[in-house]
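User: Teach me something about this protein's shape.
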Amino acid sequence: MSTSTPAAQDQRDENAAYLPELTRECEQRGLALQTVGATPDGLAKIQVIVGRRTLVVPPTADLAETLDDFRLIGKCLACRNELDDTATPYHPGYNHIEGSPLMVCQPCRDQQAKIANDPNRLAFSKCMNAVEAVFQASENPAMTRKALREFVDMEASKAGAATAGGLTAEQSAFAADIPLGGWMTAPVESALRDIDDSYTAAENEHMPFLAAKAVITDYRSQAYGRRTEVWLDYGRTTGTLTPAKARDVLAAMAGFCAQFEAVIELAEHEAASDFEGDPEIAAADREAEDRSIRATTEARRAAA
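Assistant: First, the predicted structure itself:
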């Protein structure tokens, strides 16, 4: 009986489809191609075998990514245009499969620098450094965290009223996302943190109740096209929406707010009759329930 997972089978099927193209690419580059049982990291790599440079491919390798990496050689990592003499390495240690560095053209590099040097981003970095300094100097981190949160919420309310939904430079500019094979903006997040009862308050503190960002997917666009979506996060769940569908969701959320407020008002009215139970009665009730469970269990055993 096969122990292959559906994901592993899908990978093999996709690899089989790309293997002929990858073989031709290797031939054009003077490389041999050899399939092997495994490699130390599970990735395809170039090795010298019997005096010839050979692309060694294990079953776990993604041949589509390997082929795309070959075809990206000599092109900009961000825009995929042909490189000229002004191109520079993307980052030390990031190389193509054959060892040459990943490169970025000068226009994309200028755009990255523009984003990095944006006054809003620099001001935010300065602010975060100040926050870190405050915590290092604080003798009561919990109180400091509470005070900072209240201050940030207050300032966010003021800013929200003043800008009426305006976006920061990072939230309105698309930046390359290499693992995605596309572009995305920085997310907008609600000041309210997540309220999932399945997690602790500390865990929820790291997750916004709502977040949204714009995403462009154009990986191998000639084959698969270009797609623009809105990614809406609600807690730990993400919905991918077309702009039109996102507009529908926004309208539905606005309509829900009035109904939600009505539910809150109803609950507030009923909450006036709430009261705490008696711990002694609760303990006696649990004890009686335990006795009933034991008696039922013993009767079933006796009947068996």
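Now, about its shape. The mean pLDDT is 85. The chain is about 50% helix and 15% strand. If you'd like, I can walk through any region in more detail.
User: That's plenty for now, thanks!
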